[in-house]
Every structure is written in C-alpha cells, then in structure tokens.
Write a structure and sequence with these properties.
alpha+beta, Deoxyribonuclease I, Chain A, six-stranded mixed β-sheet, 6 helices, about 25% helix, elongated, disordered N terminus, disordered C terminus, Endonuclease/exonuclease/phosphatase domain-containing protein, Endo/exonuclease/phosphatase, Endo/exonu/phosph_ase_sf
Length: about 300
C-alpha cells in the first residue's frame, strides 16, 4: 500500500466520470443521483445502500443509456450503474449483498479493469471474505482494480481525524495488498448535525491509480449523510472500427452495378454437377457483396471505451 499523497494527473480529453455514493436507502437521494446520471452518458456510479422497496433496488432502473448491475439477492446493499457503451460483466463468484464487482476488458491492450462497490457493515470483520478473495484473484491475474467502499472505519490515512479499531484492522490488511488509498485531504465524506468524519474510501492498484484524476469530495447536495466522491478515469479509446450501415445504401448505384455484373454473368450448367451449382452460388454472392460494398461506403464507428 502506498502511504504518500497521490498526485493527480492533468485531465485527459477522453475520460469516464465516476461517482461513488452511499444513498442510505433514501428515495430522494436515489432520485437526485438519477438526474445526474441522465445528464451524462459517460458517468459510472458505484453505489452503496441504494433505495430498496420490496427487497429490490428502486429509483435507478431504466436510466437511458445505462445498465444497473447487481446480483439477485434480497435487500442488496451495493450496485453499479454503467454506461451501455462499456462492455462490463459481473464477476459473480465474488459478488454478494455487500459487494458488486464488474470486469471491463480493454479493447486496445488486452488489459482488465475491475470496478467494485463495497459496503462494510460496522459489525462485520474487516475485510469481508468476498472482498479479500476478489483482491487476491485480481492480484493473481494482474487485473487493475478500483474499489469504492463505505468502510465504517476511521484512520488519518484516508482523512479521518481519529482512529478506531476497525480503522487499524483495515490499515493492517491494506498493507498486505498492492492497493493505494486515493483519498486526499481531510474533507469529510460523512456529515451529520452531530459529527463529521471520513468513512468512505477509494482504493486502487498502482496502475489503476495512474488512470485516476480529479479525486474530490463533492459539494453538490446528495440528500444523504454521505457526500459523493467524484473522480475521472482517463482512457485512451481504441481506433474506430469501419462499418457499413445498410440503411445508407444508395439503391440506385447498387441496382446499376448489380445489373451490370449480372449481365456479364455466365452461369455454369447446373445439370452437370453439384460443383457447378456451388460455383454459380459463389459467383452470385460475390456480385451481390461487391455491389453492396460499392453502393454503401464504410464509416467510422463511435468510440467505446473498454470492451469494444
């Protein structure tokens, strides 16, 4: 674990905005977050304690351009909202009520980035079995990891003004891993009328930490006692993949080219052999394909970030 203050790089033109937030099961907090997510199709939300009704997450479903990722458990305390332009998949073997983890494969350099949302109940041991196994698995496979956690633990390493037993336990565990604490400064993440402290932390492997910039505690109202944490992940998008849109085919050009090719076509005698039939099929297919390609030029696809 790195102990030094993390230096924030200059923001790159291509980046994803990450919101780390604990909604405290509040409807108004969920509604406020939903509005933010609807305004930016590149925003990822790593959520703890979402609003629950009838044992299911509510208020965050069917957001345009977004996918709600969670495993089917009663009263889940974590979930992740991901833009549909990102090819992300749940890592089911490590997910639980208190841990949601997704794997994103880079289309450019074959690397893997894991994003995880974690809730650490104050009465449970640190770390939870699933979290420790996930971190161990990522280390073994050399996957980069970014973890957003409500740790319910105090320690000056992540900005708390005091230390408690849970904070000491978490620190001892982190020293055994390759994770970096991304929290900067002493701005509290948990604010009530009675106390202000920092119990929400962001962790990352060293390589993943180099992708992160602009980490800060937001001043925007969250309508929960937890304030949002926001940061960017800088991503170099892959080169666009050329493709053809059949709807943009110039039918007049297509018909003209195909008519010319068919007029020059001399079919083999199909009564002689199966090979002649196959030859005719191949020739006709080639004529159709080449006519379509000339009548429908390629265009560049839109960038997807990971997993194109």
């Amino acid at each position: 674990m790195r102990m030094a203050c993390y230096a924030v790089p200059t923001l790159a033109p291509k980046s994803l905005t990450i919101i780390q937030t604990n909604l405290q099961h509040k409807q108004i907090a969920a509604a406020t977050l939903r509005r933010v997510l609807e305004e930016d199709n590149k925003t990822v939300a790593l959520i703890q304690e979402p609003w629950i009704r009838n044992n299911k997450i509510c208020g965050l479903n069917n957001i345009s351009g977004k996918s709600l990722l969670q495993i089917p458990v009663e009263k889940p305390r974590t979930c992740i909202i991901m833009p549909k332009t990102i090819n992300a998949s749940l890592i089911n073997q490590f997910c639980s009520r208190d841990l949601t983890a997704v794997k994103i494969n880079s289309a450019e350099d074959q690397t893997t980035l894991v994003l995880a949302s974690v809730y650490m109940p104050g009465e449970d041991d640190i770390p939870a079995k699933e979290l420790a196994e996930l971190i161990q698995h990522c280390e073994a496979n050399k996957w980069d990891v970014i973890i957003a956690a409500d740790c319910n633990a105090h320690h000056p390493l992540w900005g708390s003004m005091d230390t408690n037993k849970r904070g000491e336990q978490l620190t001892e565990y982190l020293l055994q891993t390759n994770l970096t604490i991304l929290n900067r400064g002493t701005e509290p993440t948990f604010v009530t009328s009675r106390c202000q402290t920092t119990i929400d932390i962001t962790l990352a492997t060293h390589k993943a930490a180099d992708l992160v910039g602009g980490w800060h505690v937001s001043n925007e109202p969250s309508f929960a006692d937890h304030r949002r944490i926001c940061f960017q992940i800088h991503i170099k998008p892959p080169d666009p993949i050329p493709y053809r849109n059949p709807r943009k085919t110039d039918t007049k050009i297509y018909e003209h080219i195909l008519t010319k090719k068919l007029s020059d076509f001399e079919p083999a005698d199909v009564t002689l052999s199966v090979d002649n039939i196959e030859t005719n099929v191949q020739s006709l297919t080639a004529a159709l394909t080449s006519s379509y390609e000339k009548a429908c030029p390629t265009e560049a696809s839109c960038h997807q970030y990971y997993g194109t």
